[in-house]
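BUG: 3D viewer hangs when loading the predicted structure for this chain

Environment: internal workstation, default settings.
Expected: structure renders.
Actual: progress bar stalls at 90%.

Input used:
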Amino acid sequence: MAHGKILAIDDEKNIRHLIQSEFTLEGFEVVTAGSGEEGLERFYQQKFDIVFLDLKLPNMDGIETLRRLKQKSSAAEVIMITGHGEVESAVMSLKLGARDYVTKPFKLDELVTLAKHAIQDRRAAQCEPKTTAGSVCAGDGRGIRCPSPAMAEIYRAVDRIAPTDATVLIQGETGVGKDVLATQIHQGSPRKKAPFVVLDCGMLNENLAESELYGHRKGAFSGADEQKRGLVEQSDKGTLFLDEIGNIDLDLQKKFLRFLETGRFRRVGETSEIQVDARIILATNVDLCDAVQKGQLRKDLLYRMDVVSLTIPPLRQRPEDIPLLVAKVIEVYGAGDSKIRMSSDALEILARYNWPGNIRELKSVITKALIFADTDVILPDDLPRHLAAHRKAPTRQPKTLEEMEKNHIIAVLAETEGNQSQAADILGINRKTLYKKIHKFKIFS
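Structure tokens produced before the viewer hung:
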């Protein structure tokens, strides 16, 4: 049995041949396409676990192809193939739902490792409480709490609202971890043993959206060969998490508003109503007030959704969280090697970077570094090339006590993977003092 099924879309014949040869030897089933249009045709006809997609394609480019792939299925893992000067477009692809990207010339073993990680995540996600397309990946930080003051404030709010049945609206940029926070709310609630049902509204098929949410009776429309329970019904006694709620179709918003208010709905083609008891969590990366002004969102729906609102700050505003997040990724993808760690110089580069793709991009950077690192310590040279600009200029050896103190604090924070309580204990000071010194020395600025 094949490890998984791969679609490789690239206009260079030799690259398609290399991918097909290597992955066939690794036990994968591989289909290739020379253009975005041909790739979409293959994708519509068959199911694939992973798609390798070149960013530069004739006619329809990789970004547009990615959009259409994700409209068809949000579950497929897409890994972009880019040139050295295309990092900005590659980061855009992460925002559109790509899992990762590699730059040419790439090593085939890098692609193989990324593919195996993707298969591992897909299989782990299938073992979670009942979910649908868009479910969170295993090992993405659900069990950790970031140490930054901004996130600490959010966790305090989570602890208060999780045990309730209040509707929660989570806002934040793509990749900040809205799905992770939603999972933590569910796991902290009395419903934690019940289904956690997830739907990415941005990927809803416009014609089948109502059926996806509410289900349908047999024969309700062409192709409805049997009765179907929708996601709302599947979430009874559990939690329904609707990601990217700002993309829900206007025609569906009125019915969804009524469901939020009453907990009642009808399957497509039926006249009788069904009552469910589901906790609702919503998430979006768009400005909902702006969407109301543009006529894309009903005002009454916004008011009903915004019962409790949490806004996750982007990663660039909380660099203190980077060491812990790095440690978590290393723990999951470090092949069980507990000795692997990130050097203080590499951590400082990560802290200086702007992270337009947020935690999703950080995960991509660290998994690549694990592939290329020659030792147990990830060094600056193991990081992707586009991070090189964020290195500090070479400096002289520290001569003052303050310089030595700063360097020592950085080293201890790296050793404790960003755990400020442990670092304070090692340094022999209290956490409040350490926090003041971090800001005094601008260690994470």
